[in-house]
Design a protein that fits this description.
Elements lengths: L20 H53 L2 H11 L4 H30 L8 H26 L3 H25 L3 H28 L9 H36 L1 H15 L3 H15 L3 H26 L3
Helix pairs in contact: 1-3, 1-4, 1-5, 1-6, 1-7, 1-8, 1-9, 2-3, 2-4, 2-7, 3-4, 3-7, 4-5, 4-6, 5-6, 7-8, 9-10
Length: 324
Amino acid sequence: MSVDIEDPIAAPAGGAPRTSVAAGSVARSAAEATWAAFALLTGVIAARHLGPVGKGTVSSIGYLVALVAPAVTLGLGEAGVTLARGRGTDLRRVVGTTISWLIVASVVGAAVLVGLLALQFRGDLSILRGATMAAVASVPAMAVWLVFSLFVEAEGGLIASAAIKVLVGAVTAVASAVLVLGFELAQAGAVAGMAAGFVAGAVATTAWLWIRRGVAPVPRWDPGYLRAAIAVGLPIVGSYLLLGTAARLDLLIVQGIKGSEDAGLYSVALTMGQLVFYGPVAVAVASYGVAAGLGAGDVVAFIERAGRTGVAAGVVCAVALVPI
């Protein structure tokens, strides 16, 4: 039987609603566009009120958080979807063991982040103490949001996950405005606003799984599941890190060589360029839960069509970006 990209996601156990990949892709694309709007608003707040130097500093810190947080997950979000949908592993076992891992890994990730910040800013973090503390708080919050978003999507909550991403962007923008403009907390306020957005995402995805699927966020330790999940997730997170470093590592290089002022100007150009990425990502996110539940005979044709659709979405985004 051939599988089209428009085929609905099979309802998970417990009667989860059916959501088509097409509807999920549209919802995700709309969420990405709204997210981009909030990101640009947040960037304007930072650029106008912190200046190029402050904007460059905040952008560099945010980029390092965006590298460390996915790394500490070890791909357990993608692995959990694969094992729960493809191999029938109990979702409570998946969520509980993932929470336990993230508690331990986030401590290590926070230490690594502080080391990277010290290296990037040449060991002088005294003037960035508040921003550093906010960045450390961002690591576990972002990690939980990233992982649990995938669980929500796999459980039929593609539209809910898209709405939560909009919530993250909105909370980030509002918190940044209040902390930077109202309380004049400068870089610390901008990074704390980012942390607030990730906390909102973590709380919302956890609440959705608890309320809609009855999966309480109770830590548990299952070494057998963890070994199987890491084996699946580690290559995936490795590919993400390669993509992440290819996309924005040059921001750190510019900041290290030319300073925060040039990095602030450069970060605006990078943000505009990354808008092309949102369309293909929307297709990929909406397709992942479906692919994880397909057999070997159907998944190849499905991935081929999803890939072609992703390329087309990227071209459309690129063409639309030119006049902008």
